[in-house]
Design a protein that fits this description.
single chain, alpha/beta, Quinone Oxidoreductase, Chain A, domain 1, Rossmann fold, 2 domains, seven-stranded mixed β-sheet, six-stranded parallel β-sheet, 8 helices, about 20% helix, about 25% strand, binds zinc ion
């Protein structure tokens, strides 16, 4: 099978051939249809995540079909599954026992500690996969596995009775959570890089009430804001934009340092928190919601061998929506 592998810090990914792996106990072998590209893949490439063991196959937004099952797994061949970032949790630690398996002490993550979906085939622990309906094409479904899920978890951390939600960084996660928020009747305030007309147009097109630059403030205070861009300067900016008692949620795995800011920005019971990973319950709730409403994921498709190009376009802010690697049809 063809894979794109990260062999050293900084990359680029290398195209390699590997034998198709054999599923072990509890595992499924998936024939990958599509795998979306996430900002976390850039952090992996740049060595910004701790303890990366090379070589690693990135990719944690995988849609594929069951090709074979390991011992103890009874799933039908051909069944369509999605594989998210959380690839394993221990089930025994304090976090796992308190419905916070996203924070598991021994969690393992797809495309980081487990070879991921930038490949024609991948192995996954079946307990952490989600059934994926055929209503979505593989390319449309792939970004739901992280951009969608993390956005959904971030939104659920914003508090109840939201009326006005700010989103900083209008990429893959934002364009999905924006649709969920609008569907829930929440007004959207989209903040983009100053001068990023493409992202601003995209936000308008999706139905944002207000679109502006991250250094601007709307004329009404917001109930909450989610920061998807990995830019620490946005934290005080977002705190400035939310009302007393409002929340600022950081949805990314990595962020540049947050500059110091006056306590008055946090005062008034404003809350600042991060969102880490996902739980399977998040996945179930989000995918149920995604089947009750229609989420239109805007995707730009690339062949597997163009993974580096997709990553570069993501880095340079050239994408509208999500980049997705779509596998060529191969005879299995
Ligand atoms: Zn991701
Ligand atoms: Zn655990």
């Amino acid at each position: 099978m063809k894979v794109m592998v990260l062999e050293k810090r900084g990359g680029p990914l290398q195209a390699r051939e590997r034998p198709i792996p054999v599923p072990g106990p509890g595992q499924v072998l998936l024939k990958v249809e599509a795998c979306a590209v996430c900002r976390t893949d850039l952090h992996l490439l740049d060595g910004e995540l701790p303890e990366i063991h090379y070589p690693i196959v990135p990719g944690h937004e995988i849609i594929g079909h069951v090709a074979s099952c390991g011992p103890g797994v009874m799933l039908e061949n051909g069944m369509r599954l999605g594989v998210p970032w959380l690839g394993y949790s221990c089930g025994e630690c304090w976090y796992c026992l308190h419905e916070q398996e996203n924070l598991c002490d021994r969690a393992r993550f797809t495309g980081y500690q487990i070879d991921g979906g930038f490949a024609e085939y991948t192995l996954a622990d079946h307990r952490f996969c989600f059934p994926i309906s055929s209503d979505y094409s593989a390319a449309e479904a792939a970004p739901l596995m992280c951009a969608g899920l993390i956005g959904y978890r971030s939104l659920s951390m914003c508090g109840n009775d939201l009326q006005r939600l700010g989103i900083y960084g209008f990429g893959a996660a934002a364009h999905i959570v924006a649709q969920v928020a609008l569907w829930q009747g929440i007004s959207l305030y989209a903040f983009t890089r100053p001068g990023d007309e493409r992202a601003q147009l995209f936000a308008h097109h999706l139905g944002a009430t207000w679109v502006g630059s991250s250094n601007q403030l709307p004329d009404v205070p917001l109930d909450a804001a989610i920061i998807f861009a990995p830019v620490g300067d946005l934290v005080p900016a977002a705190l400035r934009a939310v009302r007393k008692g409002g929340s600022v949620v950081c949805g990314g795995i990595h962020m540049s340092d947050i500059p110091s800011f006056p306590y008055a920005l946090l005062w008034g019971e404003r809350q600042l928190r991060s969102v880490a990973n996902l739980t399977r319950k998040d996945g179930e709730k989000f995918l149920e919601l995604a089947s009750n409403t229609t989420i239109h994921t805007q995707v730009e498709c690339y062949p597997l061998h163009a993974a580096n190009e997709a990553l570069t376009n993501l880095r340079e802010g050239k994408l509208t929506g999500a980049a997705v690697l779509v596998m060529a049809e191969v005879n299995s």
